[in-house]
Amino acid sequence: MTLPSGHPPVASRRIGVLLVNLGTPDAPDAPSVRRYLAEFLSDRRVVEIPQIVWQPILRGIILTTRPKKSAHAYAQVWTDKGSPLAAITQAQADALQAALGETVQLAHAMRYGKPAIGPAIDALIAAGCRRILVAPLYPQYCAATTATVVDAVGAHLKTLRWQPALRFLPPYHDDSAYLAALKTSVETGLAALDFAPDVLLASFHGMPERTLRLGDPYHCQCQKTARLLAEAIGRPVEVAFQSRFGRAKWLEPATDRVLERLGKDGKSVAIFAPGFSADCLETLEELAIRGKEQFEAAGGRQFAYIPCLNAGGPGMAMLEALVRRELAGWL
Q1: pTM (2 decimals)?
Q2: Backbone phi, then psi, for 248, in 5-degree steps?
Q3: What is the pLDDT of residue 10?
């Protein structure tokens, strides 16, 4: 069709896919971590304490003391490509772009930090995407993760006069493609070890226990993932929850306490983090480094960390299958 004289350029129609993960500071230094934590911990879904109570605590002791400690932890896992989470998410987007072809435009964003969700949506629209699939990379649904992505997308849509059509990738905690990828990853990891672990431990990110009582399905979905994976690989999988914060009671058992118990019992352990789609501070530093130190200090024998799905073959095959399914009728 020929456009009228003087008509502004019209981008060709494309389908957009936006991969979204949690986020990361720009650098492993205290100022960058402070900016990141200020945004992350100000989200009312992440910390469900009245802001009039929480903000003085956050702006006071937490943002004064925690950034330096967290920056030291980030420095231990930082790479020449920057944050592991940022580099892996970029690699996932690149691999998915190659798999889906030119009719689909891939982008990635972080819920907190950069690249931000709003500019990523704007870039997809500028590339001609009037239909966009937003894919939060959280297998298990939680209001503090999945729902915050929906919140941020909705907030940005309020600023747009011409809004795109949207779909959201649903949680995939019990999806056969996800379980098959986990099975391959875990079995490959176990086969590469020079010992047979007594315990296979699945560590999920923790949440305050009250979230379960309020109806959040996260705890149940984590348990279901572990149960289905155990059936698939034919051996027991223990479940634990990591990253406790503050004085509130969190989901149990706690990963650090489980590792201490297993160490005291003289066990060997292989630990993995099926709730994380990409390796990050919580897996590489909290589990693979500090977790190992805690386990060995308690008397544990062999310890191994099995990496996340990341941008490897099984994980990317799963992600492509999930995205193609959600794009049905658009492609």
Answers
A1: 0.94
A2: -65, 155
A3: 54
Phi, psi of 73 (to 5 degrees): -65, -45
Residue 10's region, left for phi above 0, alpha for psi from -120 to 50, else beta, is beta
Tokens encoding 156: 């940005």
Instruction: Please state, in angstroms and rounded to a whole number, the distance separating the CA atoms of residues 301 and 303.
Output: 7
Q: Which residues of the chain, if any, have pLDDT below 70?
A: 1-12
What's the 3-state SS for 80-110?
CCECHHHHHHHHHHHHHHHHHCCCEEEEEEE
Question: Structure tokens of 58?
Answer: 């956050």
Do residues 243 and 205 touch, judged by C-beta distance below 8 A?
yes
199-205 and 269-272 beta bridge pairing:
parallel
CATH of 14-172+315-326, one of 3.20.20.70, 3.30.70.660, 3.40.50.1400, 3.30.70.1060: 3.40.50.1400
Contact 269, 300 (CB under 8 A): yes
